[in-house]
Write a structure and sequence with these properties.
Strand content: 5-15%
Helix content: 10-25%
Number of helices: 5
Distance between the termini: 181 Å
Strand order of the largest sheet: 1-5-3-4
Order of helices and strands: HHHHEEEEHEE
Largest sheet: 4 strands, antiparallel
Structural class: alpha+beta
Length: 267
């Protein structure tokens, strides 16, 4: 007896079986019964003799008639592929007609053409006499083509100072009129070249002196041609354009003779 659960402990032999379950002895008996029944069926039905077939009577027989060998030849798969005595045109295949070969016979004797030594080259001489050939000139070097250079016609000594515009700004008209002065001197003055950068509105945003005229007046307070050129370049205005344009303003100065200060008398 379990003191905790309050139940009485019973041995396994005395435990009650579940309802509907078979004991192990009954299962052994059922298996042995099935085995005995299977062996009995083998002995009962295995002793029977096999069924003997009865002889067949009144069977249809196929018999070939005499002279039917031509039809039997149709079973030959090479009847029309290989030449034989029973195929189509067998006489032409098995007994070809022999054709004799006859080589070409040349009976005429060779005849050599005469070769007159005095007539050699007569045809060529006749051809040269009846045909006139013009002289062929090899023109390996073409003739020289002379061209006159386009030189602007300017006076040898200008009467006044001039301005020349080069570069990209030459395509944009100058809107500001410029009055260029002449400088007193007995020698020729070199041009003053000023590089300018013009914006889209036409105003000069940068002016740089590229080459100087080399003119140095006696009075240091007098404006030089280079200074005058820079001042005129900064105040110049051009036609509007699409973008910044770079160019050069070349001021060609003109000189005037110095006034005579002394008038010596005649000797």
């Amino acid at each position: 007896m379990n003191p905790d659960s309050g139940e009485l402990n019973m041995p396994d032999e005395t435990k009650p079986r579940r309802k509907g379950s078979w004991p192990l002895s009954r299962w052994f008996f059922l298996i042995a019964l099935v085995l005995v029944a299977h062996l009995a069926l083998i002995f009962v039905f295995g002793a029977r003799k096999p069924i003997a077939s009865r002889p067949v009577a009144q069977v249809t027989h196929l018999k070939l008639m005499a002279g039917s060998s031509e039809w039997l030849l149709l079973n030959n798969p090479t009847l029309f592929a290989l030449p034989n005595s029973e195929s189509f045109a067998w006489q032409a295949w098995l007994k070809p007609t022999r054709v004799g070969f006859r080589p070409l016979e040349w009976t005429e004797k060779p005849r050599f053409l005469p070769l007159p030594a005095d007539a050699l080259g007569a045809v060529f001489n006749q051809f040269m006499e009846t045909n006139r050939f013009t002289a062929f000139k090899f023109d390996l070097k073409p003739a020289a083509q002379f061209a006159v250079p386009l030189v602007p016609q300017e006076p040898k000594f200008a009467d006044a100072s001039t301005l020349r515009i080069e570069g990209g700004i030459a395509r944009r008209p100058l809107l500001t009129p410029m009055k260029l002065p002449s400088w007193p001197g007995s020698d020729v003055i070199a041009p003053s070249t000023v590089q300018v950068l013009v914006n889209a509105a036409g105003d000069v945003v940068s002016a740089v002196l590229l080459s100087s005229s080399g003119y140095a007046p006696a009075d240091p307070h007098v404006v030089t041609p280079d200074q005058r050129a820079l001042a005129l370049a900064r105040t110049a205005r051009f036609a509007p354009g699409p973008d910044l344009t770079l160019g050069e303003l070349i001021f060609k100065w003109c000189t005037i003779p110095l006034p005579a200060t002394n008038n010596p008398g005649a000797l």
